[in-house]
Amino acid sequence: MMIADEDVELRAGEYKKIAIKEVTLDADTLAIPCAFTYHAVASVLKVSSKEGNCLVERPRTIKYVYAFGQETGKVRAGDLVGVLNIFPIMFTREAMKPVLL
Fold first, then answer.
1. Is residue 58 domain-resident?
2. In Å, how far are 50, 76, 88, 91, 97 from 57, measured between CA atoms?
3. CA dist., res. 99 & res. 91, Å (int)
4. How far apart are the C-alpha atoms of 58 and 37, rounded to whole Å?
5. Kind plus residue range of the DSSP H or E element containing 81
6. What's the half-sphere exposure (Cβ side, CA atoms, 13 Å) at 1?
7. Looking at the chain, which terminus has fewer C-beta neighbours within 10 angstroms, N or C?
8. How crowded is the C-beta side of 13, counted as CA atoms within 13 Å?
9. For each of the chain's 101 residues, which pLDDT tens digit applies?
10. Is residue 99 part of a domain?
11. Is residue 16 part of a domain?
12. Pick from 37, 34, 59, 35: which is nearest to 49 by CA?
């Protein structure tokens, strides 16, 4: 879950960065915001880690969401702004040569 960590004023049509409570992702996972809208004022479009661009092979910490204002209003600290879907990556890193099946 993505929980707001600050109070933010948001206008309809405005695109804004909002701090959330930290979400730590394990290595070899992908995080995709759920397409459904969970907040009456804001709709989460994407997430950002506090380290900037990160390799998927390393653990990461998500600290911000980029949200689009659907209505004019407030996002308050503690509000649920969205849900984060986390998927494992199913690569075999040790495979060195292709195998014909």
1. yes
2. 16, 34, 11, 11, 21
3. 15
4. 29
5. strand 80-82
6. 9
7. C
8. 0
9. 999 999 999 999 999 999 999 999 998 888 899 988 899 999 999 999 888 888 888 899 999 999 999 999 999 999 999 999 998 887 666 666 666 66
10. no
11. yes
12. 59
What gap in Å lies between CA 64 and CA 72, rounded to an integer? 20
Largest CA distance in the chain: 58
Q: Supply the pTM of this predicted model.
A: 0.80
With tokens 């689009």, the residue in question is 68
- Give the residue from 22, 5, 19 showing the smallest Cα distance to 78: 5
Whether residue 92 is contained in a domain is answered as no
Question: Angle at Cα 75 formed by Cα 72 and Cα 24, nearest 5°?
Answer: 140
Sign of CA dihedral 17, 20, 23, 29: negative
Run of H or E including 64: strand 60-69
Q: Half-sphere exposure of 83 toward its Cβ, with a 13 Å CA cutoff?
A: 7
Taking residue 96's Cβ as centre, other Cβ atoms within 10 Å add up to 6
What's the structural domain count of the chain?
1
